Amino acid sequence: MCSTPTAYATLNQALKRMGNNQQELLRVLDKPYLPLHNNLSERDIRDYVKKRKISGSTRSEAGRRCRDTFASLKKTCLKHKISFWHYLKDRLMAERNIPPLSDLIRAAATCG
Questions:
Q1: Are residues 71 and 47 in contact, defined by beta-carbon separation less than 8 angstroms?
Q2: Backbone phi, psi, residue 47, to 5°
Q3: Mean pLDDT, to the nearest integer, of 65-89?
Q4: In terms of Cα–Cα distance, which of 84, 110, 111, 108 is closest to 98?
Q5: Are 64 and 40 in contact (CB under 8 A)?
Q6: How far is the C-alpha of 6 from the C-alpha of 78, rounded, in Å?
Q7: Which residues contact 85 (CB under 8 A, 6 or more apart)?
Q8: d(CA 47, CA 53)
Q9: Within 13 Å, how many C-alpha atoms sit on residue 69's CB side?
C-alpha cells in the first residue's frame, strides 16, 4: 500500500515515510491487546491538572512531591477497585490486610 504512487506529492512523501517505518508501525500487531491511544494516561492526570490550575500549585518542592505521590496512590487504588481511605488506614495502622499496590499491579498485568 505504501508503494502505490498517487498524483499528490505530499501524499507520496507521507506514504514513503510510512513505508520506511513499516516495521515499527506494524509492531502493534505483535501485542494486539495494547490500546492504540493514550487516553487512559491522559485521563489519569486530568484531575491533577484541574486541581493545579485552581490552587496555583504548591509552595514547595516537598509539597509537590507529596501531592503527586498521594494523587498517584489515589488513582492506582481507584483502578484496582480499592478504597483509597481504606488503603491509607491499612498502611498507617500497619494492618497489612490490603496487599501492596505493586503486587496488585503485577497481578493485573499478568492477567492481560
A1: yes
A2: -60, -45
A3: 90
A4: 84
A5: no
A6: 49
A7: none
A8: 10
A9: 7
97, three cell numbers: 490486610
Over the range 48-79, which residues count as b (16 or more CB within 10 Å of their CB) and which as e?
A: eeeeeeeeeeeeeeeeeeebeeebebbbbbee
Supply the pTM of this predicted model.
0.51
80 closest CA partner among 61, 62, 53, 98: 98
- Region for residue 71 given its phi and psi (left: phi exceeds 0; alpha: psi -120 to 50; beta: otherwise): alpha
| Average pLDDT estimate for 22-33 | 81
Q: How much is the pLDDT for 1?
A: 67
Please say whether the beta carbons of 98 and 89 come within 8 A.
no
At 35-60, the pLDDT tens digits run: 777 677 677 777 767 777 777 777 78
Task: Indicate the pLDDT class of residue 61, thresholds 50, 70 and 90.
Answer: confident
